[in-house]
Write a structure and sequence with these properties.
The complex is a heterodimer of chains A (386) and B (259). Chain A is α+β, with helices and mostly antiparallel strands and 386 residues long. Chain A is built from 12 helices and 10 strands. Classes of the chains: A alpha+beta (386), B alpha/beta (259).
Chain lengths: 386, 259
């Protein structure tokens, strides 16, 4: 019998997705799971993991195959997320996925020379790429960013700072959104800054509630001089390009929410079947069975919506409002189900050695990162004509 | 040169194996299938050999079921084509039935070098590779941990226990069975998976191979399956390591009589 956890979403997947899933699972089991406990404690994942992931074809599942990516669709991205999340760390997932947000600007707007220089070495795992958007004084309000790039001859001189940058410490290159004119939206431009450039520095390694295996940093740009050849696209094209990236990022975070919820449900079920109290297993109590039934229903709800959005995206149908709905739904469900899982595990669920403890912390990022739930609701409201 | 690889679809190691009501066979309900793990080393060695010397790699599988999905996944690892022998006549097949079918198909394709896993993860009989070699009239080297090909000559290394390695040299044709450590199987990258969809995969019946049901009639019939007996009570030996070790040896020798 097909599991109710997968029966509604199986229809979207082909043999090709299944084969890709098998490959991702093998990589996760052989490379990620053996090390994740240590990397979470260290709050740092060795850079060699990117190289191993690149060798295995695990980096950039939806980036063009001709640039070393997987060439897959939105459903491949979902499968990738589900399988990498099996390592039980949203941080590691986001670290290995940071190129999926860092490279699209170069893929869409970059010249062939720029793509050869800054895409292929990243998809192969030789270099790590990060996206630099958020600033200490500009988060959801992207157009309010202040980092400025001023043209001087054949160079631009960049000054400013970026924060909460995923893979910010490992990064060999950062795709930076900077202001090239005072036009609020039309004055933003992408640049690739190599992190060995004079004036660039990692000003702070940030400590986080969850996502600990991911290196997150505050970056400082102090008269960083980059040649015009590092500008991605024409001046002023950054904001529109960034908007194109958001839909995929929201789907990725929705997928992470689904995966967190499903793993927490499975771990809670496994524990409840084994743990005895008052002479019977926890599943022998109606209160636990009902809790598990509600958790499973929520997992299926989040997955049904997220897969439907992914299928729309696979067909090339724009669905920013639906993607925002999926992200909010999956984020809320990840929070709720991980909370319930910790509750079922009791004291064990509060211990760092259990996955649900870690995932309950990782889940808290989902209503914040990639656009807060409030920003999502604004998008949804506008889409509804409110 | 044509290099063959015999692979078997076996229950994924996470599958729960159950016995049919009546106990006459294992149930296939709910089983997830995957290529047997040792066959992955065989595929990798064949592809590496092809990359070094040229030629083509052909996968072979034999079953009463449709194995094309698992074989298609294996094609993503680099082989060029596949022959899936699928016939109801293999429903009760034993090792010799499979070997007979595979040997016929290998002969028909004109392979001169065949790799396969040292054993399949389900039946664990370790019989088919040697039988295939015998039926083809070829030598075979089992449990190989290192393989080199120079023209028509090969050198195969196999561990024979106690840290001793046996080096076997010879000429093609030969059947080689892969031991863990022979290589590190590559990952099937997504573009390779996509490419594999277009690779030739031929499904053949026993008749297509010129075989009849009698040719593959099993000589071994498995008539009854039973789950292992429930484990008895455990005895926990108390005391320090030296005392408990001594007591364990005494009990194994005097009570269990296994030493």
């Amino acid at each position: 019998m097909t599991s109710p956890l997968t029966s509604l979403t199986a229809r979207y997947l082909t043999d090709e997705h299944d084969a890709f899933r098998a490959m991702c699972r093998r990589f996760t089991e052989s490379v990620l799971i053996p090390g994740i406990q240590q990397w979470e404690e260290d709050e740092f994942t060795p850079k060699d993991i990117w190289r191993q992931a690149g060798d295995a074809g695990m980096l950039g599942p939806t980036l063009p195959a001709e640039l070393g990516g997987g060439g897959g669709d939105a459903l491949h991205a979902l499968v990738w997320t589900e399988e990498v999340m099996r390592c039980g760390s949203g941080g590691l997932l986001s670290g290995l996925g940071s190129l999926e947000i860092a490279l699209p600007a170069i893929v869409h707007l970059g010249t062939p020379e720029q793509q050869e220089r800054w895409v292929r070495p990243v998809t192969s795992g030789q270099r790590v790429a990060a996206l630099g958007i958020t600033e200490p004084s500009a988060g959801s309000d992207v157009a309010g960013l202040r980092t400025r790039a001023v043209r001087e001859g054949d160079d631009y001189v960049i000054n400013g700072s970026k924060t909460f940058i995923t893979s910010g410490i490992h990064a060999d290159q950062v795709t930076v959104l900077a202001r090239t004119s005072d036009d609020r939206h039309g004055g933003l431009t992408f640049f690739v800054v190599q992190t060995d450039s004079p004036g660039f520095s990692v000003s702070k390694a940030l400590k986080k509630t969850g996502w600990r295996a991911s290196d997150t940093a505050e970056l400082s740009f102090d008269d960083v001089r980059v040649p015009v050849a590092n500008r991605i696209g024409a001046e002023g094209t950054g904001f529109v390009q960034l908007m194109r990236t958001f839909e995929g990022e929201r789907l990725a975070l929705a997928a992470q929410g689904c995966a967190i919820a499903q793993i927490c449900y499975e771990d809670a079920l496994s524990y409840a079947r084994q743990r005895t109290a008052f002479g019977k297993t926890l599943t022998g109590f109606q209160v636990t069975r009902h809790k598990l039934a509600t958790m499973a229903t929520r997992v299926v709800t989040a997955k049904a919506l997220t897969y439907a959005v992914a299928e729309q995206m696979r067909q090339g149908i724009a669905c920013p409002v639906e993607a925002a709905m999926a992200k909010n739904t999956a984020a809320d469900i990840a929070m709720t189900v991980s909370y319930d899982a910790v509750q079922i595990l009791g004291g064990a669920g509060y211990m760092r050695e259990t996955r649900v403890e870690r995932l309950s912390r990782d889940a808290r990022l989902l209503p914040i990162g990639g656009g807060t739930s409030e920003v999502m609701n604004e998008i949804i409201g506008k889409g509804l004509g409110l | 040169m044509k290099i063959g690889v015999c692979i078997k679809s076996t229950p994924d190691t996470s599958s729960r194996i159950q016995i049919n009501p009546g106990g006459d066979d294992l149930s296939e309900a709910g089983v997830k299938w995957a290529t047997s793990p040792y066959d992955m080393f065989a595929i990798e060695e064949a592809v590496q050999t092809k990359e070094a010397t040229g030629g083509e790699v052909i996968l072979f599988s034999a079953s009463h079921q449709d194995t094309s999905k698992e074989v298609r996944k294996a094609l993503a690892l680099g082989p060029d084509s596949a022959v899936c022998i699928q016939d109801d006549g293999l429903a009760k097949a034993d090792s010799l039935s499979f070997a007979t079918s595979l040997a016929k198909a290998i002969e028909a394709e004109g392979c001169t070098l065949v790799f396969t896993g040292k054993r399949a993860s389900d039946g664990n009989n370790i019989q088919v590779p040697a039988m295939v070699a015998e039926l083809l009239g070829w030598p075979h080297v089992s449990f190989v941990t290192d393989f080199e090909l120079d023209g028509e000559s090969f050198k195969a290394v196999r561990a024979v226990g106690g840290g001793v390695e046996e080096v076997i040299t010879g000429n093609l044709p030969v059947v080689i069975t892969a031991e863990r450590g022979l290589n590190s199987p590559r990952y099937a990258k997504l573009p390779m998976i996509v490419k594999a969809k277009k690779k030739p995969l031929a499904t053949k019946s026993l008749a297509d191979l010129g075989l009849t049901a009698d040719d593959v009639a099993p000589i071994v019939t498995l008539s009854n399956y039973e789950p292992p007996a429930e484990r008895g009570d455990c005895i926990i030996l108390e005391g320090d390591a030296a005392t408990t070790a001594k007591e364990l040896v005494r009990r194994l020798r005097e009570e269990a009589k296994v030493l």
